Request: fold
Amino acid sequence: MSSKKRIHRDHAKKKNRPQVENEAIANYLEDLLIPAMAAQKTFYRQLNLRDRILTLPLMMAAILSLLWRDVAGVTELTRLLNREGFLWCQPQNISQQALSQRFLTFPAILFEKVFKELLPHFRQKWLMRKSRPLPDSVQFALKNFENIWIADGSTLEALFRKLDSLSDVPIGQLSGKIGVIIDLVTHLPQEIWFWTNPKQADVHWEEDLLKTVKPKTLLLLDRGFYHFAFWSKLMEQEIGFITRIKKGASYQVKGVLTNTYDVKDQIIQIGAGTQKTPALTIRLVQIRWKNGWRSYLTSVREPEILPPYVVADLYQRRWRIEDAFCIVKRLLNLSYLWTGSVNGIKLQIWATWLFYAVLVDLGDAVADELGVPIERVSLEMIYRGMYHFSVAYQKGAASDLVKYFADQKNQDLGIRSRMRKPHVRLIISPFPGTQRSPEQFFGNNKATNGVIF
Reply:
């Protein structure tokens, strides 16, 4: 019996069929990026790169073309540059070797600076949109917190070993790990870190988080940050957090806020009182789910600030960062690393997250046009729908990206997700009774992709 070789789908060879350039999409990207790149002119010269042919604008256009036009690789990208150009770049006669070498050596910090230059611009555009509603739990939490951020890490895929320099790398060696902060309100990435050690534990970048997160911020953390000393530092800096309690955790109940069949809300003391595990007085919120309970820990001890169901709903939305990882790694091909060099990996990381932020901004504009929460707009289908927009644009049937995706005629593109169950108002009482069963709460959360209206 013959054995078949196992195929890694993320490493499968891509088809060499790039999308056709579209003027409207090119103009959209140009309006966003040209001012941000111009702001890096002084820093660019400090790096002694002013005499290069492959400048920051050309490299940015090249990598964004790889992403949004789904170009198979540098060889095909070189053909496009030599024959037709892309985005804001005119055709130039450049060899494939020169472009490949540039991908290995072009300073990734320039892409990082462009990304961070754009974030306030995206935030300002978000503030100008008023038609798309925010979820009830988010609106309520924003009364007392300036930011609601999600922090998590993700391991990058294995290196391909196609380059001679990687021939001695063990098979299956992972290429590193990224740590990311996502804003739950805007869905935009706020900060990104990269480490070459793929086994880097989340607790090792707690200091980076403490330096980045501002007071009056609410952090949604998974159990990778289950570290009492870290929680203590967050509380000292007036940073709130919500996380899940570990199974079998030992604690003492100091006070009872709510005790019903569906909800238990208690003030507890957790920790042994040592330097590594200081004793903390925090809050334990438990909500009945089927035959068990879902339990959450939060440093916000006042139920008037974060009612029990608001705590549970906000933590359910922590899944947004997993959605973001899925999009950048599977849809935008961050799982398919172009190079094995550290600089090349960083270049791809920053470019991919930059394009992800562009997709989020476009998705938010579509949500505002439709008057629905951004959670009901599929970024994946917007990305895939760019092909259909390009066809309609060539035929003169469309000219504006946002209006095209929001048009009722294009509902079959799947831009707007369907509501499978009628919406239910979230209970925001600080001391809830039994107005609604937990099955309605969690069932509706799952059916509407984490949206409770």
About this structure: The first strand starts at residue 147 and ends at 155.
